[in-house]
Amino acid sequence: ALIGECICIMGNELMFRHSYCCGTRFNSPAMIANAWENRADVYSSIGALFGVICAQLGFLVMDPIGAIIVAIFIGKSAYEMFHTAWNGILERSVDNSIEKRIRKEVTKHTEIINVASLRTRELGPYLAIDLRLSVSPDITLSEGFEISSRIKDSLLKIIDKKVGIINVIPTGYYEKG
Q1: If 0-12 CB within 10 Å is exposed, 13-18 middle and 19+ buried, where does residue 107 land?
Q2: Which residues, in sequence order, are bridge partners of residue 82?
């Protein structure tokens, strides 16, 4: 039983490391979740190993204590996976550093008056950007979409993630007052 548990622990840990590395490389939430499932198997196997060793030494009470500790580790992993998946379902914004870089890049274009709205979110391994830019109301529609096309191209050059969708919509800017 001890040899079997040790082989199981090593095998699951190797699968965790490989799956997590690939999931991170390809920005795949499904692969990362599968990796954490392998890590939960490692925790279970460590608890079973602990129980077998304690039983061999005559400490039978340690088996349920080990099971409780393993359950806590598995619960923590499950919570983290659930939290990540929930944020994906709700299309939460990505970190602020990407939005700051987008705003900085947009302000380099002189024809942009300001960023009317910016929303970024992750859609699986991809990044979606919805951007509304205030431009002069005196330009033509084709000029507005030419500006948005140039901004899309410049954003694709500075963002290091896979970009699935970029919506850049020029909107007229009117002074309030």
Answers
A1: exposed
A2: none
CA 3 to chain centre: 37
Q: Which helix (H) or strand (E) holds 117?
A: strand 114-123
- C-alpha 49/C-alpha 62 separation (Å) is 11
Report how far residue 24's alpha carbon sits from residue 161's, in angstroms, rounded to the nearest whole number: 12
Task: Say what the pTM is.
Answer: 0.55
Write the pLDDT tens digit of every residue in 82-100: 887 777 666 666 667 888 8
Q: How far apart are the first and last CA of the chain?
A: 80
Tell me if 41 sits within 8 A of 60, measured CB to CB: no
Q: Report the alpha-carbon distance of residue 161 to residue 141 in Å, rounded.
A: 30
- Name the amino acid, one letter, at 107: T
